[in-house]
Amino acid sequence: MSWTGAVAGWVLGVSLGQSPTTLEAVRLHHTEATSLARREWVACVEQKCPDAGRLALLAGTLALSDGHAAEARDILSAGPAPALLEPYRAFYLGQARFYAGDAQGAALDFARVVEAPGAPLGLVTRARARLGESLLKAGQVKQAAGVLEAAVKAMPTPELYYQRAQARGESGNSEGQQADLLTVALRFPSHPYADDAVKWLMEEHRPGKSWGFAERTQRAEGLLSGGAAKRALDELDALNGARLTKEQSAKVALLRAKGLFALNREPEADKALAIARKGPVAIAAEAELLVARRVLRADENDKARALMAALDKKYASQPAGEEGAFFAGWIDLQAGRFAEAAKAFAAHGARYARSRRREEGLWFRALAHLRLEEYAKAREALDSLVTTFPRSGLVPQARYWTARSRELGGTSAAEVTPEYERLITTAPASFYALLASERLRELGQPAPASFPRPPLALELPRPPELALAVELTRAGLFRDAADEVESHVGRLRSAEQALPFAHALLGLGEFGHAHTVAARHLWGRAFGSREPDALAAFYPRAFSSAVEAAATAQKVDPFLVWAIMRRESAFKPEVMSAADARGLMQIIPKTATEIALKLSEPAPAPADLFSPERNIRYGAWYLARLMERFAHPVLAAAAYNAGPGSVAKWAVERGNLPLDLFVESIPFRETRGYVKQVVADLFLYRAFYGEKGEQPRLSLVVPAPAKEGVAF
Fold it and tell me: Of these residues, 288, 568, 613, 664, which one is catalytic?
């Protein structure tokens, strides 16, 4: 059933406000959504139908989002919305008036929301912030100051700090104004308001004076984190000539080196590092670790290995020393020096017994022994991992490789079969359960189903807390519905509360929130007890119409699309990563431009990638091309995460390994984990929703990739 049909199921006996076509267009961000909503509203007004207020709410908010503030104001002013939705109409009417230039009228609308009995807290918080801004713009400074005091406490954003600073200043509270502007300048140095805050603080409040070490380095660190390396260097340059201690000079040099490296000004960065390395031990160690990591990223592995070992020897009391010891072993492992790697990881575990990397070190030690075919030694490290870290996420792979090493060492099928079966039962959703199933089939043994019963959607009484979310969904205000849902999700305390809530969210099309609820409260029920009602929220066929249409058009497995979507965004369309990947399939704007070119479409604006329909369509196209080139879901998933070039290189270098060892040998930690989850989810989706009959198989042979094909 599509999500629109599911919504209809929840509101049987009540007419839908918008048509399913319009709601689908809004949900998927189709370009015709605004015109569809307006036509339905106009037709309703002409026919004097009772749903005009609800229809106006969607038509008005869509006009507002398109930048047509005056049109939105006229639509939203036409009449009241249903009682539950009236605070939202007032809020969006206030938005429309504000952007149409009527700050006084906007303030009145926002005040109505703040004062409305029973208005949702999240909406009241947003309205209070806009009320303060509107009053300030309307010249009602005293009233604005009071409102903004409360707004900042509820929502401490740089915008509100800056607006409160303005209100405080115009009210005569110069100390409060200075405090707020300092907050903006120091805590949010990359924000546009930070420049205005700095200008006021430097030119108006403290003319002729400059900031010192603490302020400049705090801003520099924030700017570096925000990717503004040039501006960070400007902050540090302002300290030239200042009287700094040796420790302060070393810290400035280290920050300067990071900024210079980010700008590819390596000779200057090396000079700065030379200063940092002469500083106190903690700074010197961090500087030398920075050097070693850069060398490692440049694939100068022998040099990086020597630098890491030197860190271990010189800075054993510092975090950098422990990192050096670990990466010395890791470099040996990647270079195929398995005996040296085993020795290095054993030394790391002995020397850094409290290391946060100790369990991973045990695993890599075991992997080195596996590659040497020293199966007894591998099992010794694996047993230590399971015994020392029984709750570790590495336990399923330790148990798989314990059984596999026994099989490779000549243990009979009768002895290893129970170990594989136990793994399938105890870690049913893992990549290792999938591998164990394949190993059992190789031994001529039947593989038990990871989950005896597929996911089951339930028709349960809707929790009363979701009444407003249903109304918002019926009105097409999906973002507001999501906010309303989120306000209740955090209050759930048990699986009994969470189960009906999750299924109600699935019915509303809130797949991401349903998954969040399940992850917080239904994990044991889904993967311990293996209950089908709990599984439904973990493995939904989200946005099914868009996925199936795109998969059919591109001739790619829709279950692979869902598996990628589950890993990339957990079904939340609004997600954006630190690398600027966007939407359900986490498409980067540059990649989207390449895909659009291949599809003979105009390049999309980055914001367009939050459209579920477009994002899914582009993701399906890209997956289809990856499968054409790599012909195996493991390689395609790896390429989706790490890029086709890297995966083609790995396949050439290590494609002779069996698939399980190939995956363990992927150099990137993130990609290893990504591949394992995606491929496990792919086969679970196939088992749950595919055609009944023989269970799908995972080829344990790594195919040679095509030389030609998608390369971006």
Answer: 568
